[in-house]
Amino acid sequence: MLRHTGLAVALSALMLAPALAQDETVFPATLAGHAYIPALSLITPPADAPADAWISGKFAGGDNRIDAPMSVEGDVGAFHGKRGTGLFFPFIGQPLQGFSGFAMERAEDGSIYALTDNGFGSKANSPDTLLFFHKLTPDLENGAISVKETIFLKDPNKVVPFRIAYEGTKERYLTGSDFDTESLQIVGDEIFIGDEFGPYIIRATKDGVVTGVYPTILDGAVLKGPDNPSVRVPAVAGKDFRVARSGGYEGMALQPGTGLLWAMLEKPLMDETGAAGEPVLTVMAFDPKTTEWTGEVIKFPLADGATAIGDFNFIDETRALVIERDNGEGDPSLKCEGEATPDCFPNPAMIKRIVLIDTADVHEDGTVRRIGHIDLMNIDDPNGLALLDTAADRDMSGTYTVPFFTIEDVMKIDDTHILVGTDNNLPFSSGRQLDEAMNNEFFLLSVPEFLAAK
């Protein structure tokens, strides 16, 4: 069982946690399978969706709308050198891309439930992107992913407590301006989804009909982000909202035995001045049976240099996997020396890990014990299973690496293997190559020592 702690914990020891994380055990990982969905993979919206949804990304290019399909090239943004990705938007159809979470429980046919995120990365630029999840079957022998079914989220019964983008339509399909869906779990015949904007917990049927939207309650108060519909300009960070933008529920794990959902914020909470707090992430327990927050809180200590997490799933009743990352993309061997140029990465990937934690072992400061991690930048590939080349100024033979900004899916497959997936932020991320949009990669890792560690 998880140990109960409140928000008010002793902070004196928290500064030690990141430093200690650097000395933790690093376990080996071997590539056991690789598959990917090409970056430009689009799907048709439902027949009864608004016509607006047939062209997605019309508002993803800045202040002015763009109506001409495939007319503007995506780029990786100023932080990563403004390099073009070779893909042009708006898109005809909806992007399949952006897998942001795996459910721990599988479908009856053995397929994996996977969630697609909110579209183009923000509330403002995603009003024409639909929200949906899928049933996927990885075909690792042939390097492909079979999408067996896509289920679109909708609110025909007006359960969502605020105005949605497609408010006046009959089916009321949800969009990336309504929620930023980042994590999901299957509980009986229902799904629960963690949202970043509110942050909210969304409850729905397996055919996508929303049946509940629950605000976050921490220490008796509603916890909000800047994109919460109730936050109005002017708003004061630390007072009107404490969750950073893109800092809501990136991971939400279903705990075996208790049946509780543990929702983890992507970034540290702000203090009362609006500054980022200690480098720890708040994790709160939600009971799907009562649809109430239990008041139990633990904290995940970020390693030095890490900025966020990507996913969170239990592997038994107390141990869990957490994807930990920095904001970099691209191989470190191609780091720019000085000004960014087309042939280098100004902020390459450095920290891309999967951390094993023990939630039953909570320190006095409220942080969970980090058992160890695997390094996604240094995966053994002795059999040459990697399907895609990596731009690098070093010998990559026998090595598979994951130099991506966002790696957002992890789940245990069996006692020796885990499956990991990426979010390609279509069409705004690269990483594998300097001038190509990243694909949605899925990779099976053999990690027996890691999964057995206590």
Count of domains = 1
Strand share of the residues?
Answer: 35-45%
Distance between the termini: 15 Å
Category from helices, strands and their pairing: mainly beta
Counting DSSP H or I runs of 4 or more residues, the number of helices is: 2
Beta strand count = 30
- What is the strand arrangement across the widest sheet? 1-25-24-23-22
Low-confidence stretches: 1-21
Assembly status: single chain
Average pLDDT taken over every residue:
93
Compute the gyration radius: what is it?
Answer: 21 Å
CATH class: Mainly Beta
CATH architecture: 5 Propeller
Output the CATH topology. Tachylectin-2, Chain A
Helix content: under 10%
Indicate the overall shape: globular
Strand count, sense and barrel status of the largest sheet are: 5 strands, mixed
